[in-house]
Amino acid sequence: MSIAAQKRLLKRWIILADKTLSRRTRRVTRLEYGLCPFCKAKPIKHCFHFVTRRKWAARWDSRNVIGSCASCNYNERYYPDKYRAWYIRKYGVEQYLSVCDLAESTVELSVPYLKEIVKKLNARKAPKTRTPISGS
């Protein structure tokens, strides 16, 4: 297989992994919260990453992503501390730091690695019913 063909195949698997994570995240967040977990007013349309998607090691980690409305996803660019504080209140500082540590690690993107990610994401089961929103 030529290098160009390998690059095209890798790009296809990156897109598939992104789509799989996005679909799963929006579905799980809708079932858990019903509406955007931040503003609690608008429907979930986007995937919200606490650590930037440019960090490949944390890009597809389910601890790093949650569904959000478009405006909260956009506002994170200007008020990141507000959303990081929400994450720490909800999941704890230890989990946030573990996601940050994961983001700083290096990962070699390969088709087998991406196939494993898609397999793991598809294997996870979403909750069957909505849980009530807690005071967080």
Assembly classification: single chain
Largest sheet: 2 strands, antiparallel
**Low-confidence sequence ranges:** 130-136
Shape: globular
Query: Whole-number average pLDDT?
Result: 84
Alpha-beta classification: mainly alpha
Order of helices and strands: HEHEHHHH
Sheet-strand content, in percent, reads 5-15%
Helix segment tally: 6
> Nearest-angstrom radius of gyration?
16 Å
Number of strands: 2
N→C terminal distance:
51 Å
- The residue fraction in helices comes out at 55-70%
Biggest sheet strand order reads 1-2
Brief write-up:
By secondary structure, the protein is mainly alpha-helical.
What does this structure look like?
This protein is mainly α and 136 residues long. It has a domain at 28-117. It is 57% helix and 6% strand. It is built from six helices and two strands; from the N terminus they run H-E-H-E-H-H-H-H. The chain has helices at residues 3-33, 56-59, 70-75, 80-91, 93-104, 111-123; strands at 46-49, 65-68. Helix 4 crosses helix 5 (93-104).
